[in-house]
Amino acid sequence: MTDARRFSSRRRPNLAPWLFISPWILGFFLFTLGPMVFSLVMSLYDWPVVGDRRFVGLDNYRVMLTQDPKFWQSLGVTVKFAAIFVPLNILLSFLLAILLNVKVRGTALFRTAFYLPSIISGVALVMIWKWIYSKDYGLLNYALSLMGVDGPNWLGDPHWSILAIIIASLWGLGGTMLILLAGLQSIPKELYEAARVSGVPAWAQTVYITIPMLSPMLLFTFVTSLISAFQQLTIALLLTKGGPLNSTYFFAMYIYDNAFKFHDMGYAAAMSWVMFLIILILSMAVLKYSAAWVHYEGDVKGGGNG
Amino acid sequence: MARTFTYGALIFLSALFVAPFLWTLLTAVKTEAELVAWPPVFWPEDWRWENFATSWAEQPFGTYLQNSMTVVVLSTIGQVFSSSLVAFGFARFRFPGRDPIFVLLLATMMIPWDVKMIPLYMEFNFLGWINTLKPLIVPAWFGEAFFIFLLRQYIMTVPMEIDEAARMDGANPWQLYWRIHLPLMLPGLVLVGTFHFMNAWNDYLGPLIFLNDQTKYTLPLGLGLFQGRHDVDNIAIAAITVILCLPPLVLFFFVQRYIMDNALGSSVKG
């Protein structure tokens, strides 16, 4: 009986795979594609939460780019954050991964210590750092005072506030570190042995073996860090509320305020599309120019393109 | 020599990473006077564990916790079930359009939350779901790209012969998924469940946007808004922060082996 069914089902178009993937297909239309198309339409409207909406064409985009200094200012804060955070995040993760890759006793314990901050809530992270950054009672300024440095007002001084957010964000680098550590551990040991036998010094082994072999992972973490840096919101929202003097007023915060404080849904939707386009263009650019320096195992140089 | 340096660096750096946790725990059990002392008091004279109980009573944190648990439990079940279902569909069937659809699925990981946040608010508003926990639970029942990708990798390591043998014995695709593959990808399910649990437990922006009423707040949202209003009661904030950190940390210690195995390969010695 079962055999007969198996044969007959082979002749009919097979529905089974579609049934299995149907949750995602449905979810894609309901919670991703549908909302995105809707938001693109919204961005062409003057769309208050209550009251009549009015079609304005590309006006939201025009106003944003030509008449809204806060748009450029908040974009500037986000770009500045990303430009400092992304390289530091990768560099520090890389250094920690190198340390953890040395075969010493207890690496599992150290690995856990570095990874733990990345699994806690952004809200908890903010509460923890807010107290550490306190000008008068904070642990950080106390540590600095031991070294004879008069610590700044981290969260109250527009020169230091963005750095405070960067440091707190770097505390959660555990995920990036783990990816790079996995990459390091997959590099064949023979490469290093061959290099040692030929008398290649350790620094040259890092430059000519480790970094090229790790380049796909470095690229991956670069793109994911970039995407998350552009969406930075929770930490700034709770740690500094965008201040002082808008020094941490991130692009995502301006979108949030436009939508849920100023109730200008159309304008906020247009801004969110600008953010999406920036992320898309940056990621594509990184991927395109990465071909020159990313080494894939099994690549035949000049062996064929595409 | 190099080994000593490595040890020294590892000990110093891991102390830096752990210190903020310890400092928060110590802050939670201090007295007001110790809190604002300069130079800072590291070791409280007597550990006031009762701070946890008094802080917990300052706000309806019990209600927040109940809401958080509801969201986390119901959405984790949905995420594990739906993601494994979809992963099985992609891993074990050939059908027209499979590969482009899978690429599309991976591409959705690049879409920023900000683009979806506003229309989703409108959509949930239209459905009457604003100020309910549904927006935080229902979407998890439709799978998530990263988890589907992860489970698909698990399924693809299972030899096809196992599927063929089961089919010979008369198993239909559902039985193949439910009886054969679900048990085999258990480590992957633990991983997906853990990661989703942490995301759902830690989420702040979702609750912030979709919930208005205090009786609906989740724990992170409740703590965030409590901090906004009570900027002075730092002991209570530290105490609730410790409580908020506990579930992910405890869960991590139980499943750490799975996380490290998945990331670093099973050659890793714990």
TrEMBL record, chain A:
CDD domains reported in the protein's UniProt record: TM_PBP2
Primary localization class, coarse: membrane
Keywords: Cell membrane, Membrane, Transmembrane, Transmembrane helix, Transport
GO process annotations (BP): transmembrane transport
Lineage, top ranks: Bacteria, Pseudomonadati, Pseudomonadota, Alphaproteobacteria, Rhodobacterales
Transmembrane segments: 21-45, 81-102, 114-132, 160-184, 205-227, 233-255, 267-287
PANTHER family recorded: ABC TRANSPORTER PERMEASE PROTEIN, ABC TRANSPORTER PERMEASE PROTEIN YESP-RELATED
Natural source organism: Stagnihabitans tardus
PROSITE patterns (alphabetical): ABC_TM1 (PS50928)
Range of residues in the leader sequence: none
Protein name: ABC transporter permease subunit
Sequence ranges assigned to domain ABC transmembrane type-1 in this UniProt record: 75-286
Similarity field: Belongs to the binding-protein-dependent transport system permease family.
TrEMBL record, chain B:
Keyword Cell inner membrane: yes
Domain ABC transmembrane type-1: 65-255
Pfam family name, one: BPD_transp_1
GO annotations of cellular component type: plasma membrane
InterPro entries in the record: MetI-like, MetI-like_sf
Keywords: Cell inner membrane, Cell membrane, Membrane, Transmembrane, Transmembrane helix, Transport
UniProt function note: Part of the ABC transporter complex UgpBAEC involved in sn-glycerol-3-phosphate (G3P) import. Probably responsible for the translocation of the substrate across the membrane.
Name of protein: sn-glycerol-3-phosphate transport system permease protein UgpE
